[in-house]
């Protein structure tokens, strides 16, 4: 191990020397980062201070703290927060200077505590409460007279009602088709453009959609699919193409079940770039000696791809596959923006939102969220196991 | 040492950054949670516009505030704030408006989590019903307010704000759904007249089909797409026709589910609506076949009237806001609306209406005073003057104060003694039906050509 790492270490130390000789740019960066952090800190503190003074109206706070709507009050609030900031900083610096030994556990708590607290408050507690809610009727957290324990009824509804069966079927189609096609296309593209002229440009073309938000992409594609009657000029690209080759315009988003595939196409369009980038990087990381050895053994073309490239990039393929699968399971934006879940295109995440925040059927909504959670677990477990395996190999 | 030096610099920069940040935050404060004082200067004259003595019974309210939560956003919310100013000047109450498009998704969550606003403007009574039933935190209308409501609104309107026998909400802005939009110019050019009866309406539709044999121009255009509320415009068609064909009594039973949703009477009504909406000869001008109704947004639905691809579009009075800039909405303008006609020989004028409702979550004197103001004729008139399609069912609203011609027409409908006013049924049905199965199945009825009886059976079975 250490023998292999040695050249890198040399590199690193020489880079360090370079940095110290021209120290100004680095300290400017550090300064910028510092200023940014302070801005964030002050913003957060300001918010906390303001909401705190608003939250406890019983005590008569000075009016500039609660309701600063004039310039003088705003300035007073500013001075107050600056003073608070300086006070906190002074306290911190004092603590740093008082070179007393602090016990290890305080250090551990200081560093891990906030993260743990945030996880507990923001992830674990809501998770548990959602699971509890999924066993209740429409309004799980109302007073006892309105919340009603229904056991597994919500889950029974999900699996036995035809409309929810369509939702489950669609989700299944999404989870199978998107990773399969996106990884396959990404792989083929990455291999085809590897070490060609203009590789960066070709990569950029495929990667660009990643930079568009899902909602933005959905709006773009809704325009592409837009339908007008054959007698009128088409405004959607897809239908104009159909008309040019002499076919009738087609209602891409309306006709079930093919419309789900046209929604899936949007996700593939976005995710292929992601798959391609990771896979391409993995291909470049295949050591040259392996390829050369294979060449000497007379392997080339498809056999090289099958027996050398694929096995070498298997970990990367898995990571891409699992990541895209998880993104796809959570897909909500595309369905909501393009069809609103109508025309039998709804998926679990969209139905969860509709049930919770449109029908106010919070119990059923929670059950859908739990279902999504349960489906994601095996995928995550599989990924963690694969990661462990690949670490052992290394 | 160098660490010390750097910390001094950062401290200095932080002060500068801090002041910038605070300045930015300060700016946000005034626009986000707007309070009366910023608009107070123009409103000082307003205090004489309204009767302040009405609010003396609530004692000295100066320095208090009332939070108001609504789904209305700027610029429309500014019209509301302007209409609140005279009340603020009278009483010294600071009305804090919180305007959010996420109202419908958030209100239940806010109430459940113990953070309700003092007053909420519910966009439709179905949501008020849901919040009452699911949370139990809505307060009945205060007696002082109810007295003012009784002076200003007809008895029917009280029924729509009543849930399980308790009176919870009174109407804010209302709209009439019994309108068909058309182009007066196009009608005049083709020699068509505004139909007075349902039979005339069908005859006119046939006439238009006959006059345009190539099928490029159709009598009707329609659009029912509306995000996750897709399908609601169909429910307006059904309700309007139900009211005309089966009468008000049957309509009330239908809404209350005292008659089954899939009764033969219902099938007749759906078929009558289908004779227009599912008739390839009649629809969908400018967009294509019947199916395109489902993929066209209701906002876009009427626009082909402007380029002559269709002649008529049935949509509520609030559609006035959807015409592109520069379109004159008036009887002698580019577009206007006529009354969705009753059947031949009908002696009443059925009018289908929708409305926002105001309900309170907290009982403090200033909240009582404010809801009382919102029920008053003063508020209805002041708010109507600010425009944005505001029409109130308040009987003491002076129609002259209503800003646009179409809103005037709606206001006249509300005050017409011959009018038989009924509320949008889907809004009064339980959420599973009114904003669930009814919309979804109506969409399938149009988009997939689903059989009428099958559609009605599916909606019937969704009834909780």
Explained architecture:
The complex is a heterodimer of chains A (394) and B (464). Chain A is mostly helical and 394 residues long. Chain A folds into 2 domains: 22-100, no CATH class; 157-393, MetI-like fold (Orthogonal Bundle), CATH 1.10.3720. In chain A, 75% of the residues lie in helices and 0% in strands. The model of chain A is unreliable at 1-23 (pLDDT under 50). Chain B is α/β, with parallel strands linked by helices and 464 residues long. Chain B folds into 2 domains: 36-176 and 353-423, D-Maltodextrin-Binding Protein, domain 2 (3-Layer(aba) Sandwich); 179-348 and 424-462, Periplasmic binding protein-like II (D-Maltodextrin-Binding Protein, domain 2, 3-Layer(aba) Sandwich), CATH 3.40.190.10. In chain B, 48% of the residues lie in helices and 13% in strands. In chain B, helix 2 packs across helix 3, helix 10 (232-245) packs across helix 12 (264-277) and helix 19 (431-447) packs antiparallel against helix 20. The longest helix of chain B has 31 residues, at 2-32. Chain B starts with a helix and ends with a helix. In chain B, 50% of the residues are buried.
């Amino acid at each position: 191990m250490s023998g292999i790492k040695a050249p890198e270490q040399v590199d690193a130390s020489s880079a360090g020397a370079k940095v110290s000789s021209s120290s100004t740019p680095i300290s400017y960066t550090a300064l910028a980062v510092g200023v940014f952090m302070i801005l964030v800190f002050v913003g957060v503190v300001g918010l906390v201070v303001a909401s705190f003074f608003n939250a406890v109206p019983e005590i008569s706070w000075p009016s500039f703290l609660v309701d600063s709507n004039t310039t003088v009050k705003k300035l007073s609030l500013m001075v107050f927060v600056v003073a608070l900031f300086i006070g906190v900083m002074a306290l911190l610096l004092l603590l740093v200077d008082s070179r007393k030994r602090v016990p290890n556990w305080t250090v551990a708590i200081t560093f891990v505590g906030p993260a743990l607290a945030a996880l507990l408050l923001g992830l674990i507690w809501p998770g548990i409460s959602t699971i509890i809610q999924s066993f209740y009727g429409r309004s799980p957290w109302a007073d006892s007279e309105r919340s009603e324990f229904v056991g597994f009824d919500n889950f029974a509804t999900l699996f036995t009602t035809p409309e929810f069966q369509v939702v489950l079927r669609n989700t299944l189609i999404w989870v199978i088709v998107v990773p399969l096609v996106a990884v396959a296309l990404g792989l083929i593209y990455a291999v085809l453009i590897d070490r060609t002229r203009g590789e960066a440009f070709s990569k950029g073309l495929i990667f660009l959609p990643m930079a568009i938000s899902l909602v933005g992409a959905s709006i773009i594609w809704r325009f592409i699919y837009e339908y007008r009657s054959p007698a009128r000029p088409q405004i959607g690209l897809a239908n104009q193409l159909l008309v040019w080759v002499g076919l009738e315009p087609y209602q891409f988003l309306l006709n079930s079940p093919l419309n789900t595939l046209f929604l899936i196409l949007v996700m593939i369009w976005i995710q292929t770039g992601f798959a391609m980038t990771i896979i391409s990087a993995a291909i470049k990381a295949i050591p040259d000696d392996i390829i050369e050895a294979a060449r000497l053994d007379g392997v080339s073309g498809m056999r090289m791809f099958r027996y050398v490239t694929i096995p070498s990039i298997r970990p990367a393929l898995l990571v891409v596959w699992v990541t895209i699968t998880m993104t796809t399971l959570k897909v909500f934006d595309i369905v909501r923006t393009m069809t609103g879940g109508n025309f039998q295109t709804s998926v679990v995440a969209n139905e969860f939102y509709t049930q919770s925040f449109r029908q106010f059927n919070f119990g059923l909504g929670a059950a859908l969220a739990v279902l999504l959670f349960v489906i994601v677990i095996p995928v995550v477990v599989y990924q963690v196991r694969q990661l462990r395996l690949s670490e052992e190999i290394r | 040492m160098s660490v010390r030096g750097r910390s001094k610099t950062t401290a200095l920069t932080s002060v500068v950054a801090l002041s910038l940040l605070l300045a930015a935050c300060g700016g946000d404060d005034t626009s986000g949670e707007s309070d009366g004082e910023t608009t107070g200067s123009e409103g000082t004259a307003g205090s004489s516009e309204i009767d302040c003595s009405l609010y003396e019974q609530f004692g000295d309210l100066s320095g208090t505030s009332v939070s108001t939560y609504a789904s209305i956003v700027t610029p429309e919310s500014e019209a509301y704030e302007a209409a609140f100013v005279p009340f603020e000047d009278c009483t010294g109450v600071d009305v804090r408006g919180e305007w959010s498009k996420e109202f419908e998704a958030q209100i239940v969550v806010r109430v459940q989590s113990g953070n309700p606003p003092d007053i909420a403007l519910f966009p439709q009574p179905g949501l008020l019903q849901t919040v009452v039933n699911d949370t139990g935190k809505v307060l009945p209308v205060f007696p002082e307010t109810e007295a003012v409501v009784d002076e200003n609104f007809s008895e029917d309107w009280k029924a729509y704000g009543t849930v399980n026998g308790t009176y919870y909400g009174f109407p804010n802005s209302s709209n009439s759904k019994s309108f068909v939009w058309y182009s007066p110019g196009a009608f005049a050019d083709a020699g068509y007249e505004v139909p007075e009866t349902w039979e005339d309406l069908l005859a006119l539709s046939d006439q238009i089909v006959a006059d345009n044999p190539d099928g490029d121009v159709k009598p009707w255009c329609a659009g029912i797409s509306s995000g996750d509320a897709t399908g609601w415009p169909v429910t307006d068609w059904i309700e309007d026709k139900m009211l005309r064909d089966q009468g008000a009594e049957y309509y009330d039973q239908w809404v209350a589910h005292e008659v089954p949703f899939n009764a033969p009477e219902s099938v007749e009504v759906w078929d009558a609506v289908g004779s227009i909406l599912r008739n390839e000869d009649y629809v969908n001008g400018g967009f294509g076949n019947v199916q395109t109704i489902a993929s066209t947004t209701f906002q876009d639905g009427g626009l082909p009237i402007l380029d002559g691809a269709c002649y008529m579009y049935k949509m509520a009075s609030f559609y006035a806001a959807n015409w592109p800039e520069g379109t004159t909405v008036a009887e002698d303008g580019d577009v206007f609306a006529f009354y969705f006609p009753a059947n031949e020989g009908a002696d009443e004028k059925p009018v289908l209406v929708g409305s926002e409702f105001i309900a309170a979550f907290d009982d403090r004197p200033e909240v009582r005073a404010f809801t009382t103001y919102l029920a008053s004729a003063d508020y209805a008139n002041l708010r109507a003057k600010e425009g944005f399609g505001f029409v109130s069912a308040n009987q003491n609203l002076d129609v002259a104060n209503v800003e646009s011609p179409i809103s005037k027409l709606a206001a006249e409908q509300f005050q017409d003694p011959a009018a038989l006013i009924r509320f949008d049924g889907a809004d009064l049905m339980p959420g599973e039906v009114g904003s669930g199965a009814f919309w979804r199945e109506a969409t399938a009825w149009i988009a997939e050509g689903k059989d009428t009886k099958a559609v009605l059976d599916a909606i019937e079975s969704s009834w909780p």
